[in-house]
# Entry
Amino acid sequence: MPELAEVAYACRQWRDGIGHKVKEVTAHPTSRVYRDLDRSQLQKKITGLTLSASDTHGKQMLFSFSNNNWLGIHLGMTGNLFSEPPHYKAQKHDALLVRQTNRTLAFRDPRQFGRIRLGEGNDPPHWWSDLPISMLREEFNSDILSGALKRHSRRPLKALLLDQRYFPGMGNWMADEVLWRSKIHPAQLGSQISKIKQVTLFEQIIFVVKGAMNSVGQHGGDPPEDWLFHSRWKNGQICPQTKSLLIREQIGGRTTCWCPALQKKS
DNA sequence: ATACCTGTTTCCCG
DNA sequence: CCGGGAAACAGGTA
# Structure
């Protein structure tokens, strides 16, 4: 599920809980999402407080509570948020249940690659405030891209795009989408990208990020019909643009899908 | 049964 | 010290 737009949608699932008090907190006894945290401390801190706001930044989520308390959630590979009925019974992979009078806010994560963090203080904790500039902001400019290309001149573009220090929220399918639209081979090295291609690449990052937020981020469904997204998940699919056979291979340690007719190495 | 997977961290190498 | 890559984490699904 979770790349930036899916995270934004997940965050909205807890929106109805804002302005309401926490009656009880249930933490899964063994889930790895608590690897930074003491479960009883989480319960002690959050119980009785009021959820006051929520926000996302890339793949990170921040929930604000009364009394200067903060809860961070990262969905990992298989995490998701749900709003369930007040007396909902915990399922096997429910890592966290936050009970309120009219609903139960649930964080479910079968593979447990997600992560829960806590913070206390007037200002948001450092794990939130230290995040790199959001790709949705005006301050996210092409200098960030050119700086990353320069510093990592021997990295395949696919691997670079997944680097959260530069492109917070970029995930596997979004990176494939960006490279496909930019007509860049995913294994192309940072140093091999012309100035012209850099401009295209930057524009397509913005296009895909905004396009994903306006579709997936709003309704939780799929991105627009003509996106590579719909053809990238299994072998033997056809490029929506060129109608030639798409390739799927590991690049930068991740399954990568691209169109050999469109995305040539140079 | 076996391989695969929307993410990140840690370890190892040059 | 830095950059790059592989392995590890864990369980569901095809």
In short: Chain A has a mean pLDDT of 96. Residues 1-3, 6, 59, 74-78, 111, 113-115, 162, 164, 171-174, 254-255 of chain A lie near DNA strand B (CB under 10 Å from a C1'). Chain A has two domains: 4-129, 142-258. The first helix of chain A runs from residue 4 to 12.
